[in-house]
Amino acid sequence: MSRKAESEYDVVVAGGGAGGVGAALGAARAGARTCLIEKYGFLGGAATHSQVLAYCGFFQQGPDPIPAIAGAAYLVRDELRRLGMDGQPFRSETTGNWIILLEPEGVKRALDRVLADHGVDVLLHTRVAAASRTAHAIESVVAAGMDGRSRIVAEAFVDATGDANLALVAGLAHRVGDETGHLQAATAPIRIGGLAHDMTIDRAALVAALARYAQEGGAYPSARTDGGIYTRLPGSGDMWWMIIDLPLGDLSSRTISEAERTMRAAAHDYVALLRREVAGFEACHLVQTGPQIGIRESRHPEARYEMTGEDLRTGRQRADGVARAAWPAELHGEAGKPVYIPVGGDGYAHIPLDALRARGLDNLYYAGRVIGADATAYGSVRVMGTGFASGEAAGVAAARRDADASAIRDTIREIGGLV
Question: How far is it, in rounded angstroms, from Cα 27 to Cα 417?
């Protein structure tokens, strides 16, 4: 096993999804020398590795798209626009929620550019394999990459892995799933090409075809009997279809491997079904499944505060709030049957600083879907738009470890974020 000499940073961020990118930008813009570690060869998280081609959480619910976040997220949005994507709010026909539609290759390039512009040192094809700590702080992590392992020392660390991998190797307590151990269903959006640009997708025809498939003993009947969530992607005109939801009994490699195989087989079956039975799809083809299935939920490490469903229902605002959560609590306890709980009050709830701070370690912060939240609040804070905001706040807090919530809020405002 080869080892390299150690590197030193002010802040190390593990995970390059929306939370990790937000954290890296927040730390760098607060003046910290920052390193971002990502296990894939590209950034973007679910948007690029699970084909979730929509940024949720940028806007509040309602008839108009009122911004819920800014700062780092808008640096990314502006770069997407420079690369040819419109970045405009799009209202989902199915849910009525405002989203931003994405092209994964553009997202990869935009994130490369934004992080380079802000001097973040990005290590791709690298994962955090171990952590060295004292009783109250992480001292360093071991980064495992293509050229072996190296030790990276930092003053503060941010876990934005989605699966709490850094907290796990640091030995922190965590729960799996909700308070009863139940995991939200995994998802596998698929992308379908070969459609006429002026074709209108007939939901009733989709529903009827899927029902016949199930009645005739199709091997992979969809849990989404309403035809799922779909839209036409800008530019290509491809259909983005969220139709595959699969229950996860546990996080074992065998369970997730089986889910991956099932997802791919179902995707091919559904595309063949469309070609046979739905007008306009006669020449369609499967463009892509994601590089991996979309995991909605895994480990929840202990934070100093857990946001609650009541925080969301009342739109609770607080003096120690450092980011906004505005996406309705979207709960996938049963595959294919999402439940939405709206955010009350002014349409957003504050994410407090302590939801981003690890319980038991003074220099570890959380971003994205590992922040402190109960089962209901998690359904809101886990989405990517909110991940940019919680990440930015975590990055600023990591860069300014001795600052209180008021000073952190001031810094977030100075760099354009909303609190």
Answer: 13
Residue spans per domain, the chain: 3-181+297-414, 186-289
pLDDT 10s digits, 255-280 = 999 999 999 999 999 999 999 999 99
CATH number of 3-181+297-414: 3.50.50.60
Angle between helical axes of 253-277 and 203-215 (0-180°, round to 10): 120
262: helix, strand or coil: helix
Task: Report the distance separating Cα 76 and Cα 391, nearest Å.
Answer: 13
Instruction: Enter the DSSP assignment of 364.
Output: E
Report H helices in 46-185. Answer: 46-49, 72-82, 104-117, 165-169
Q: Is the pLDDT of residue 235 over 90?
A: no
Instruction: Please list, in sequence order, all residues whose beta carbon lies within 8 angstroms of the beta carbon of residue 178, skipping any fewer than 6 positions away.
Output: 184, 297, 333, 374, 375, 378
Tokens of 193: 């090409």
Q: Which of 241, 342, 253 is nearest to 295 (CA)?
A: 253
Unique residue bearing structure tokens 């969809």: 222
Most confident residue range from 78-82, 91-95, 334-338:
78-82
Task: Write the pLDDT tens digit of every residue in 304-319.
Answer: 999 999 999 999 999 9
